């Protein structure tokens, strides 16, 4: 059965994503850049050298984060259930998933796994098995970073509500995401809310955004976990 996102890939995913509110907040590349800043900053604080890490992006879509992020890692790979989205990943090491619950890589093969804006598109019944399989491909002590829309942010709610790509989305609060990770035997390290200030203010307000990151204000959040 074709994956839901094959349809959006066929129409040009980046064009479908265009939204006046989203666009006024930040340019398309900033959303990826901000996530890489968050991930690399967290790794730096924890003494994790990303240049020596093998990275997997689960639900990589058309590879936007991978393309921007791969220079910072020893290796970068991706996977997704949508063949159409993966067709946009030319030049990247990507594999198609044959199941929404399985990640097509060997046990303990990655130091860092990211799952970005994916879970709200995953059927609730598939989420525990997907999380357990994400944990399977992490090396012991490996880092998992799950990024999701913050359902407590009214602008996020509004953008999701009106956007066709999110027609079947079910947003997850950070607490729900943390419980899923804990059930997969992952240790929760921290939760950080971000995308609080628009791109044009970010460079002057990055410090304020960091200080407010434990409050559920930003448009998205990241749950950082470690494999036991
Ligand atoms: C909103 S897009 C995000 C893509 C990318 N992570 C990004 O941030 O641009 C959601 C992606 O999740 C993928 N997806 C949905 N269910 C999935 C699952 N169970 N496993 C892996 N990917 C999935 C979709 O095919 C789609 O490419």
Short description, anyone?
The protein contains ten helices and seven strands. It is α/β, with parallel strands linked by helices and 228 residues long.
Summary tags:
single chain; 7-stranded mixed beta sheet; binds S-adenosylmethionine; 228 residues; alpha/beta
Give the averaged pLDDT, no decimals: 95
Biggest sheet character:
7 strands, mixed
| Percent of residues in helices | 25-40%
The hetero molecules present are: S-adenosylmethionine
Query: Which structural class best describes the helix and strand composition?
Result: alpha/beta
**Can you write the helix and strand succession as a string?**
HHHHEHEHEEHEHHEHE
Radius of gyration: 16 Å
Which band does the percent of strand residues land in? 15-25%
Discrete helix count: 10
Chart the SSEs and their pairings:
Layout: H1 4-10, H2 13-17, H3 20-25, H4 28-46, E1 54-58, H5 64-69, E2 75-80, H6 83-86, E3 93-96, E4 110-116, H7 127-137, E5 138-149, H8 154-162, H9 174-183, E6 186-194, H10 199-211, E7 220-227
Parallel strand pairs: 1-2, 1-4, 2-3, 4-5
Antiparallel strand pairs: 5-7, 6-7
Bound molecules: S-adenosylmethionine.
Characterise the protein shown here.
With 228 residues, this protein is an alpha/beta fold. It is 39% helix and 22% strand. The N and C termini lie far apart (35 Å). The relative contact order is 0.15. The chain binds S-adenosylmethionine. The site of S-adenosylmethionine has 21 residues, from helix 5.
